[in-house]
Backbone:
């Protein structure tokens, strides 16, 4: 799960930090404080990332030396039907998982922002799945989805027996059946972000809107939404990054099947690399995931950069 | 309708909608708990979705010893605890240096470190897998601890930097005048002041590391080394359609993070929001 922080303008501290800059010189131990973590990250992240980009231009079985083939892997993708499915499913995942978790998370936050008796319990109930691993979440839902499981049982009970289904084994429902557990786990998290955002809105704004005769909807439209802009930016980044990282829940429930119908780029990348042992092509798929995530990462870093000093 | 009855009506509709929503959310959890105490014969006879006709705790024993969950849970803790401690220690050091001293390029360094954490892990999987083979760490818990530290540290540096930067410069200047060394300032002044942030991040990072699957299956191979998440997938394969055992295994796998959440709920939510809204 990605967690990001909002960035706000804080130019007031600038003078203070400039004064500090003149006043202090950097002792060697302080330099070491930065270098040790930086080297750890360089060794396990930056260096492997560079290799990953290079490997995407090679053909490699992991045993003999990688063979440079230029953009060959990317050309192959153009004719790879499974890649097309995985790309489409990933986009669908972004829209459905991302969109619904934002909308429903905001909805839950609007409902549970009020400080009433019992609200702590309700919030905890919605938040509880967030602490489960996606694997455990997946297994819980796998049991619900079974042909003799609760979901089919309930459908039969309310007279919709015709809809009973082997949800995970059917190509037309597998992807959606995998999205639901992911949503179940994500909504509580988005809700927590929005509850904090809603609490940050100055009540005076609502008072003023009420005096002007604004309806509930107008208040939401013209006060709440604009005031949530920075939280929205955080939620958007979290959602895009989490969507593209989604792997565990699909891997535990369907392995991308049946017949690649629930395949995401992340699962296709993993099976290509570690099961088919096509490490070059797998790296190229990873680069595609990176490209999709790049816009969000870059815009987030730009905002963080403006704020960081 | 007078004001009082309108208020009552609002309260009632709040509890109905919020209560219904919570019930819907808790339902899968209740069902897995119920399934975990049913016997196999009961499920076979009445179906997975029926009301329980049996009660047994044997499923937990089976998942715990035959299913290998005991060993897996120990592995998970052997990875998670050192990982959280070392990551936060390293991150606190870097955040201290970057926020309290005029290092050259400090803003760039901070963002480079954060950027590393935002990368999709997929781009790193193959090289990290090969790197662990090259260093002889492949299929060891050490490899998993190290890679999780390397990948996670950037985010914690960024959050702690934001937190430490807000500590007034005067406190540090006073300590410098008193002759305190940077180490003393770090240990005696900044770290204690950063304790709320560290507590929040500990709760958060415990669940992240504990719940990880992708890194584990990338750098580990043998079943005996797998943490609880990967072992749970193994259990799924080992006890196909024995939903009572699988449910018991899921409960065991989720219990530690739920315990952390219930014990440190405030820190947890604070962690997610740390710096999110200022």
Residues:
């Amino acid at each position: 799960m990605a967690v990001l922080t909002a960035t706000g303008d804080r130019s007031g501290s600038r003078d203070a930090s400039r004064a500090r800059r003149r006043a202090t010189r950097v002792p060697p131990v302080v330099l070491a404080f930065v270098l040790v973590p930086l080297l750890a990250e360089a060794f396990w992240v930056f260096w492997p990332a560079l290799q990953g980009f290079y490997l995407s231009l090679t053909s490699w079985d992991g045993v003999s030396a990688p063979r440079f083939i230029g953009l060959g892997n990317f050309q192959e993708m153009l004719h790879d039907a499974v890649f097309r499915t995985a790309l489409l499913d990933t986009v669908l995942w972004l829209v459905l998982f991302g969109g619904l978790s934002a909308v429903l998370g905001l909805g839950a936050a609007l409902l549970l922002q009020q400080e009433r008796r019992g609200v702590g319990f309700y919030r905890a109930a919605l938040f509880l799945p967030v602490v489960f691993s996606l694997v455990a979440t997946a297994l819980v839902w796998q049991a619900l989805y079974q042909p003799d499981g609760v979901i089919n049982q309930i459908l039969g009970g309310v007279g919709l027996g015709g809809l009973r289904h082997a949800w995970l084994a059917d190509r037309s429902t597998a992807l959606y059946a995998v999205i639901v557990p992911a949503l179940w786990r994500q909504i509580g998290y988005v809700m927590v972000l929005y509850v904090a955002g809603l609490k940050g809105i100055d009540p005076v704004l609502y008072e003023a809107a009420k005096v002007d005769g604004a309806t509930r909807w107008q208040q939401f439209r013209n006060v709440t939404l604009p005031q949530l802009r920075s939280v929205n930016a955080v939620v958007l980044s979290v959602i895009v990054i989490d969507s593209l990282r989604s792997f565990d829940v699909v891997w535990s429930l369907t392995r991308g099947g049946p017949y690649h119908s629930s395949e995401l780029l992340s699962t296709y990348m993993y099976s290509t690399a570690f099961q088919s042992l096509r490490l070059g092509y797998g790296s190229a798929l990873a680069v595609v995931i990176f490209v999709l995530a790049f816009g969000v990462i870059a815009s987030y870093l730009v905002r963080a950069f403006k704020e960081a000093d | 309708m007078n004001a009082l009855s309108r208020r009552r009506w609002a309260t009632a509709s709040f509890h109905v909608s919020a209560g219904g929503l919570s019930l819907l959310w808790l339902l899968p959890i209740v069902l897995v708990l119920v399934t975990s105490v049913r016997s196999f014969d009961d499920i076979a006879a009445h179906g997975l979705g029926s009301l329980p006709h049996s009660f047994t705790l044997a499923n937990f024993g089976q998942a715990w010893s035959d299913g290998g969950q005991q060993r897996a849970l120990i592995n998970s803790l052997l990875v998670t605890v050192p990982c959280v401690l070392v990551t936060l220690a390293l991150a606190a050091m870097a955040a201290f240096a970057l926020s309290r001293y005029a290092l050259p390029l400090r803003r760039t360094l901070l963002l480079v470190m954060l950027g590393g954490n935002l990368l999709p892990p997929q781009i790193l999987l193959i090289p990290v897998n090969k790197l662990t083979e090259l260093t002889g760490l492949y299929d060891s818990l050490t490899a998993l601890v190290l890679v999780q530290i390397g990948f996670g540290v950037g985010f914690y540096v960024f959050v702690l930097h934001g937190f430490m930067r807000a500590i007034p410069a005067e406190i540090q200047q006073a300590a410098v005048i008193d002759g305190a060394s940077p180490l003393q300032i770090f240990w005696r002044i900044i770290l204690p002041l950063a304790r709320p942030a560290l507590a929040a991040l500990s709760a958060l990072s415990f669940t992240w590391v504990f719940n990880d699957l992708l890194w584990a299956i990338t750098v580990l191979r043998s079943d005996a080394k797998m943490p609880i998440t990967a072992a749970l997938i193994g259990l799924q394969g080992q006890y196909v359609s024995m939903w009572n055992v699988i449910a018991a295994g899921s409960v065991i796998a989720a219990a530690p993070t739920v315990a952390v959440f219930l014990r440190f709920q405030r820190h947890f939510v604070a962690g997610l929001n740390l710096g999110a809204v200022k």
